[in-house]
Protein backbone atom coordinates (compact mmCIF):
# COMPACT_ATOMS: atom_id res chain seq x y z
CA UNK A 1 0.00 0.00 0.00
CA UNK A 2 1.28 3.42 -0.89
CA UNK A 3 2.30 5.34 2.18
CA UNK A 4 0.69 8.47 0.86
CA UNK A 5 -2.68 6.79 1.05
CA UNK A 6 -3.57 7.57 -2.56
CA UNK A 7 -4.91 4.05 -3.14
CA UNK A 8 -6.77 3.84 0.14
CA UNK A 9 -10.57 3.52 -0.19
CA UNK A 10 -12.61 6.56 0.73
CA UNK A 11 -14.25 6.24 4.16
CA UNK A 12 -17.43 7.61 2.60
CA UNK A 13 -17.71 4.73 0.15
CA UNK A 14 -18.34 5.20 -3.57
CA UNK A 15 -18.66 8.82 -4.61
CA UNK A 16 -22.03 9.81 -6.07
CA UNK A 17 -22.12 12.10 -9.06
CA UNK A 18 -25.23 14.26 -8.75
CA UNK A 19 -24.96 15.67 -12.28
CA UNK A 20 -24.79 12.18 -13.76
CA UNK A 21 -27.80 11.18 -11.69
CA UNK A 22 -29.66 14.28 -12.89
CA UNK A 23 -28.94 13.49 -16.54
CA UNK A 24 -29.98 9.88 -16.01
CA UNK A 25 -33.24 10.91 -14.37
CA UNK A 26 -33.98 13.40 -17.18
CA UNK A 27 -33.29 10.67 -19.72
CA UNK A 28 -35.72 8.37 -17.89
CA UNK A 29 -38.33 11.16 -17.95
CA UNK A 30 -37.75 11.53 -21.68
CA UNK A 31 -38.27 7.81 -22.25
CA UNK A 32 -41.43 7.91 -20.14
CA UNK A 33 -42.72 10.88 -22.13
CA UNK A 34 -41.90 9.15 -25.42
CA UNK A 35 -44.05 6.15 -24.49
CA UNK A 36 -46.76 8.18 -22.75
CA UNK A 37 -49.16 7.70 -25.68
CA UNK A 38 -48.91 3.94 -25.24
CA UNK A 39 -49.71 4.02 -21.51
CA UNK A 40 -53.27 3.38 -20.36
CA UNK A 41 -54.96 6.83 -20.02
CA UNK A 42 -55.99 6.08 -16.44
CA UNK A 43 -52.43 5.22 -15.39
CA UNK A 44 -51.09 8.24 -17.28
CA UNK A 45 -53.56 10.44 -15.37
CA UNK A 46 -52.45 9.01 -12.03
CA UNK A 47 -48.75 9.34 -12.92
CA UNK A 48 -49.26 12.96 -13.93
CA UNK A 49 -50.92 13.76 -10.60
CA UNK A 50 -48.12 11.95 -8.77
CA UNK A 51 -45.46 14.02 -10.55
CA UNK A 52 -47.20 17.34 -9.88
CA UNK A 53 -47.66 16.48 -6.21
CA UNK A 54 -43.97 15.53 -5.94
CA UNK A 55 -43.00 18.99 -7.21
CA UNK A 56 -45.34 20.69 -4.75
CA UNK A 57 -44.29 18.58 -1.77
CA UNK A 58 -40.52 18.79 -2.40
CA UNK A 59 -40.66 22.56 -2.94
CA UNK A 60 -42.69 23.11 0.24
CA UNK A 61 -40.31 20.83 2.15
CA UNK A 62 -37.54 23.37 1.50
CA UNK A 63 -39.57 25.93 3.46
CA UNK A 64 -41.35 23.86 6.09
CA UNK A 65 -38.90 21.01 6.46
CA UNK A 66 -35.38 22.31 5.91
CA UNK A 67 -35.84 25.93 6.99
CA UNK A 68 -38.30 25.23 9.81
CA UNK A 69 -41.00 27.70 8.77
CA UNK A 70 -44.71 26.93 8.50
CA UNK A 71 -46.29 28.13 5.27
CA UNK A 72 -49.93 27.55 4.35
CA UNK A 73 -49.88 29.56 1.13
CA UNK A 74 -48.35 27.12 -1.34
CA UNK A 75 -51.60 26.79 -3.28
CA UNK A 76 -51.52 30.56 -3.82
CA UNK A 77 -48.13 30.35 -5.53
CA UNK A 78 -49.42 27.42 -7.54
CA UNK A 79 -52.35 29.58 -8.70
CA UNK A 80 -50.06 32.45 -9.74
CA UNK A 81 -47.96 30.12 -11.88
CA UNK A 82 -51.00 28.36 -13.33
CA UNK A 83 -52.77 31.52 -14.46
CA UNK A 84 -49.58 33.17 -15.74
CA UNK A 85 -48.49 30.24 -17.89
CA UNK A 86 -52.05 29.60 -19.11
CA UNK A 87 -52.46 33.24 -20.12
CA UNK A 88 -49.21 33.09 -22.13
CA UNK A 89 -50.06 29.93 -24.08
CA UNK A 90 -53.74 30.85 -24.50
CA UNK A 91 -53.42 34.51 -25.51
CA UNK A 92 -49.81 35.03 -26.58
CA UNK A 93 -49.09 31.59 -28.03
CA UNK A 94 -51.30 31.95 -31.14
CA UNK A 95 -49.59 35.26 -31.95
CA UNK A 96 -46.11 33.81 -31.58
CA UNK A 97 -46.96 30.64 -33.52
CA UNK A 98 -49.86 31.46 -35.86
CA UNK A 99 -49.34 28.29 -37.92
CA UNK A 100 -48.71 25.90 -35.02
CA UNK A 101 -51.56 25.14 -32.59
CA UNK A 102 -50.21 24.99 -29.04
CA UNK A 103 -51.54 21.48 -28.57
CA UNK A 104 -49.28 20.10 -31.33
CA UNK A 105 -46.10 18.33 -30.28
CA UNK A 106 -43.19 20.11 -31.97
CA UNK A 107 -40.11 22.09 -30.98
CA UNK A 108 -41.76 25.47 -31.48
CA UNK A 109 -44.71 24.78 -29.20
CA UNK A 110 -42.41 23.07 -26.70
CA UNK A 111 -40.27 26.23 -26.56
CA UNK A 112 -43.31 28.44 -25.95
CA UNK A 113 -44.68 26.06 -23.34
CA UNK A 114 -41.32 25.85 -21.57
CA UNK A 115 -41.09 29.62 -21.56
CA UNK A 116 -44.64 29.84 -20.19
CA UNK A 117 -43.76 27.45 -17.35
CA UNK A 118 -40.64 29.45 -16.55
CA UNK A 119 -42.63 32.70 -16.60
CA UNK A 120 -45.21 31.18 -14.27
CA UNK A 121 -42.44 30.14 -11.91
CA UNK A 122 -40.84 33.61 -12.00
CA UNK A 123 -44.17 35.32 -11.27
CA UNK A 124 -44.79 32.95 -8.39
CA UNK A 125 -41.27 33.63 -7.10
CA UNK A 126 -41.92 37.38 -7.25
CA UNK A 127 -45.15 36.83 -5.32
CA UNK A 128 -43.13 34.81 -2.81
CA UNK A 129 -40.67 37.69 -2.48
CA UNK A 130 -43.46 40.24 -1.99
CA UNK A 131 -45.09 38.10 0.69
CA UNK A 132 -41.94 36.71 2.25
CA UNK A 133 -39.94 39.92 2.70
CA UNK A 134 -42.29 41.44 5.30
CA UNK A 135 -43.87 38.28 6.72
CA UNK A 136 -40.86 36.03 7.28
CA UNK A 137 -39.81 38.15 10.22
CA UNK A 138 -42.74 36.40 11.94
CA UNK A 139 -42.54 32.89 13.33
CA UNK A 140 -44.76 29.89 13.95
CA UNK A 141 -48.50 30.41 14.01
CA UNK A 142 -48.23 34.07 12.97
CA UNK A 143 -46.40 33.14 9.77
CA UNK A 144 -48.95 30.40 9.04
CA UNK A 145 -51.80 32.91 9.38
CA UNK A 146 -50.09 35.43 7.07
CA UNK A 147 -49.39 32.85 4.35
CA UNK A 148 -52.91 31.48 4.69
CA UNK A 149 -54.28 34.98 4.18
CA UNK A 150 -52.07 35.43 1.13
CA UNK A 151 -53.43 32.26 -0.45
CA UNK A 152 -57.01 33.42 0.04
CA UNK A 153 -56.20 36.89 -1.34
CA UNK A 154 -54.75 35.34 -4.50
CA UNK A 155 -57.81 33.15 -4.96
CA UNK A 156 -60.18 36.10 -4.57
CA UNK A 157 -58.12 38.24 -6.97
CA UNK A 158 -58.36 35.62 -9.71
CA UNK A 159 -62.08 35.29 -9.03
CA UNK A 160 -62.45 38.97 -9.92
CA UNK A 161 -60.38 39.20 -13.13
CA UNK A 162 -62.84 38.83 -16.05
CA UNK A 163 -60.01 38.50 -18.60
CA UNK A 164 -58.93 35.28 -16.82
CA UNK A 165 -62.43 33.86 -16.57
CA UNK A 166 -63.34 35.31 -13.19
CA UNK A 167 -65.30 33.04 -10.88
CA UNK A 168 -66.24 30.77 -13.81
CA UNK A 169 -62.62 29.86 -14.35
CA UNK A 170 -60.27 29.97 -17.34
CA UNK A 171 -61.12 27.42 -20.03
CA UNK A 172 -59.71 26.33 -23.35
CA UNK A 173 -56.10 26.01 -22.13
CA UNK A 174 -53.92 24.10 -24.64
CA UNK A 175 -53.11 20.50 -23.75
CA UNK A 176 -49.33 20.81 -23.50
CA UNK A 177 -48.53 18.85 -20.34
CA UNK A 178 -47.30 15.29 -20.72
CA UNK A 179 -45.35 12.84 -18.58
CA UNK A 180 -42.00 14.11 -19.83
CA UNK A 181 -42.66 17.70 -18.76
CA UNK A 182 -44.07 16.63 -15.39
CA UNK A 183 -41.24 14.33 -14.39
CA UNK A 184 -38.52 16.48 -15.93
CA UNK A 185 -39.63 19.39 -13.72
CA UNK A 186 -39.97 17.01 -10.74
CA UNK A 187 -36.39 15.79 -11.28
CA UNK A 188 -34.99 19.31 -11.61
CA UNK A 189 -36.95 20.49 -8.54
CA UNK A 190 -35.64 17.60 -6.43
CA UNK A 191 -32.07 18.11 -7.66
CA UNK A 192 -32.12 21.86 -6.96
CA UNK A 193 -33.56 21.44 -3.46
CA UNK A 194 -31.12 18.69 -2.50
CA UNK A 195 -28.17 20.58 -4.01
CA UNK A 196 -29.14 23.77 -2.18
CA UNK A 197 -29.51 22.08 1.19
CA UNK A 198 -26.27 20.11 0.93
CA UNK A 199 -24.20 23.02 -0.32
CA UNK A 200 -22.08 25.20 1.93
CA UNK A 201 -24.61 28.01 1.65
CA UNK A 202 -27.49 25.61 2.28
CA UNK A 203 -26.22 24.71 5.73
CA UNK A 204 -27.67 28.07 6.73
CA UNK A 205 -31.17 26.69 6.10
CA UNK A 206 -30.55 23.90 8.61
CA UNK A 207 -29.04 26.34 11.09
CA UNK A 208 -32.17 28.51 10.90
CA UNK A 209 -34.34 25.47 11.48
CA UNK A 210 -32.35 24.05 14.39
CA UNK A 211 -31.86 27.27 16.37
CA UNK A 212 -32.62 30.63 14.81
CA UNK A 213 -31.31 32.60 17.79
CA UNK A 214 -27.98 30.78 17.71
CA UNK A 215 -27.77 31.23 13.93
CA UNK A 216 -28.25 34.98 14.33
CA UNK A 217 -25.63 35.04 17.07
CA UNK A 218 -23.19 33.38 14.64
CA UNK A 219 -23.78 36.22 12.18
CA UNK A 220 -26.22 34.56 9.78
CA UNK A 221 -28.88 36.73 8.21
CA UNK A 222 -31.75 34.39 9.05
CA UNK A 223 -34.37 36.51 7.29
CA UNK A 224 -32.43 36.32 4.03
CA UNK A 225 -32.16 32.53 4.28
CA UNK A 226 -35.90 32.24 4.89
CA UNK A 227 -36.68 34.51 1.95
CA UNK A 228 -34.40 32.51 -0.38
CA UNK A 229 -36.13 29.27 0.64
CA UNK A 230 -39.55 30.89 0.28
CA UNK A 231 -38.79 32.27 -3.20
CA UNK A 232 -37.27 28.99 -4.45
CA UNK A 233 -40.23 27.00 -3.14
CA UNK A 234 -42.67 29.44 -4.72
CA UNK A 235 -40.88 29.19 -8.09
CA UNK A 236 -41.36 25.44 -8.34
CA UNK A 237 -44.92 25.67 -6.99
CA UNK A 238 -45.63 28.09 -9.86
CA UNK A 239 -44.22 25.62 -12.38
CA UNK A 240 -46.34 22.86 -10.87
CA UNK A 241 -49.36 25.12 -11.28
CA UNK A 242 -48.51 25.65 -14.96
CA UNK A 243 -48.27 21.90 -15.51
CA UNK A 244 -51.55 21.41 -13.68
CA UNK A 245 -53.39 24.01 -15.77
CA UNK A 246 -52.14 22.63 -19.09
CA UNK A 247 -53.20 19.15 -18.02
CA UNK A 248 -56.70 19.87 -16.70
CA UNK A 249 -57.25 22.41 -19.55
CA UNK A 250 -59.25 24.65 -17.21
CA UNK A 251 -58.55 26.60 -14.05
CA UNK A 252 -61.03 27.25 -11.27
CA UNK A 253 -59.98 29.60 -8.44
CA UNK A 254 -61.74 27.29 -5.99
CA UNK A 255 -59.18 24.61 -6.79
CA UNK A 256 -56.42 26.68 -5.17
CA UNK A 257 -58.08 27.19 -1.81
CA UNK A 258 -57.07 26.43 1.75
CA UNK A 259 -57.60 22.67 1.46
CA UNK A 260 -55.16 22.41 -1.44
CA UNK A 261 -52.43 23.93 0.72
CA UNK A 262 -53.35 21.55 3.54
CA UNK A 263 -52.99 18.56 1.20
CA UNK A 264 -49.43 19.63 0.35
CA UNK A 265 -48.53 20.24 4.01
CA UNK A 266 -49.83 16.76 4.92
CA UNK A 267 -47.48 15.22 2.33
CA UNK A 268 -44.51 17.02 3.88
CA UNK A 269 -45.44 16.07 7.44
CA UNK A 270 -46.25 12.46 6.58
CA UNK A 271 -43.00 12.00 4.69
CA UNK A 272 -40.91 13.53 7.46
CA UNK A 273 -39.93 17.16 7.75
CA UNK A 274 -36.61 17.78 6.01
CA UNK A 275 -36.50 14.33 4.42
CA UNK A 276 -36.69 14.62 0.63
CA UNK A 277 -36.97 10.87 -0.20
CA UNK A 278 -39.65 10.50 2.47
CA UNK A 279 -41.60 13.48 1.15
CA UNK A 280 -41.49 12.04 -2.37
CA UNK A 281 -42.75 8.69 -1.07
CA UNK A 282 -45.54 10.41 0.87
CA UNK A 283 -46.59 12.38 -2.23
CA UNK A 284 -46.82 9.12 -4.18
CA UNK A 285 -48.75 7.30 -1.44
CA UNK A 286 -51.21 10.12 -0.74
CA UNK A 287 -51.91 10.49 -4.47
CA UNK A 288 -52.50 6.77 -4.93
CA UNK A 289 -54.45 6.24 -1.70
CA UNK A 290 -57.74 7.79 -2.94
CA UNK A 291 -57.43 5.64 -6.07
CA UNK A 292 -56.98 2.49 -4.00
CA UNK A 293 -60.09 3.40 -2.01
CA UNK A 294 -62.31 3.76 -5.08
CA UNK A 295 -64.03 0.38 -4.46
CA UNK A 296 -65.55 1.97 -1.34
CA UNK A 297 -66.25 5.31 -3.00
CA UNK A 298 -68.92 6.47 -0.54
CA UNK A 299 -66.53 6.01 2.38
CA UNK A 300 -63.34 6.93 0.54
CA UNK A 301 -62.65 10.33 2.11
CA UNK A 302 -63.70 9.10 5.56
CA UNK A 303 -61.22 6.23 5.36
CA UNK A 304 -58.59 8.55 3.90
CA UNK A 305 -58.95 10.94 6.84
CA UNK A 306 -59.00 8.07 9.35
CA UNK A 307 -55.79 6.58 7.96
CA UNK A 308 -54.08 9.99 8.17
CA UNK A 309 -55.09 10.29 11.84
CA UNK A 310 -53.76 6.79 12.59
CA UNK A 311 -50.48 7.49 10.81
CA UNK A 312 -49.96 10.76 12.66
CA UNK A 313 -50.67 9.12 16.01
CA UNK A 314 -48.37 6.18 15.39
CA UNK A 315 -45.61 7.98 13.45
CA UNK A 316 -45.61 11.65 14.53
CA UNK A 317 -42.03 12.04 13.27
CA UNK A 318 -43.14 11.06 9.76
CA UNK A 319 -43.91 7.73 8.17
CA UNK A 320 -40.86 7.60 5.92
CA UNK A 321 -38.10 8.75 8.26
CA UNK A 322 -35.08 6.73 9.21
CA UNK A 323 -32.01 7.21 11.37
CA UNK A 324 -29.06 8.50 9.40
CA UNK A 325 -25.53 7.66 10.42
CA UNK A 326 -23.03 10.38 9.65
CA UNK A 327 -19.37 9.40 9.56
CA UNK A 328 -16.72 11.80 10.68
CA UNK A 329 -13.70 11.97 8.39
Q: Explain this structure to me?
A:
It is a single chain. The protein is mainly α. It has a domain at 51-99 and 110-257. 67% of the residues lie in helices and 1% in strands. A two-stranded antiparallel ribbon has the order 1-2. Helix 4 (107-135) runs antiparallel to helix 9 (222-248). The longest helix is centred in the middle third of the chain and has 29 residues, at 107-135. The relative contact order is 0.18.
Keywords:
single chain, 329 residues, mainly alpha, two-stranded antiparallel sheet, 12 helices, 67% helix, globular, disordered N terminus
Fold topology:
Layout: H1 18-34, H2 41-66, H3 74-96, H4 107-135, H5 140-159, E1 170-171, H6 179-197, H7 203-210, H8 212-217, H9 222-248, E2 250-251, H10 258-271, H11 276-292, H12 300-314
Antiparallel strand pairs: 1-2
Helix pairs in contact: 1-6, 2-6, 2-9, 2-10, 2-11, 3-4, 3-5, 3-9, 4-9, 6-9, 10-11
Task: Give the structure's gist in a few sentences.
By secondary structure, the protein is an all-alpha fold. It is built from twelve helices and two strands. It has a two-stranded antiparallel sheet with strand order 1-2.
Largest sheet: 2 strands, antiparallel
User: Into which percent range does the helicity of residues fall?
Assistant: 55-70%
Number of strands: 2
Any low-confidence stretches, pLDDT <50, length ≥5?
1-16, 323-329
Amino acid sequence: MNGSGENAPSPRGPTLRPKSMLLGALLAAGVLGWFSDKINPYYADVLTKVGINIILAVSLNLVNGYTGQFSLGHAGFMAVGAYTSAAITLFLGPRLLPHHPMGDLNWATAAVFGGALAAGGVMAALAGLVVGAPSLRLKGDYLAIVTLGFGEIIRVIFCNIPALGGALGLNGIPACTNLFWVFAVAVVCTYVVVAMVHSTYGRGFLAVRDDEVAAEAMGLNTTRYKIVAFVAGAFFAGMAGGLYGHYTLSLDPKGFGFMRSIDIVVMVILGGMGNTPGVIAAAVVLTLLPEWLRPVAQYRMVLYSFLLIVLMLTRPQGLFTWRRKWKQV
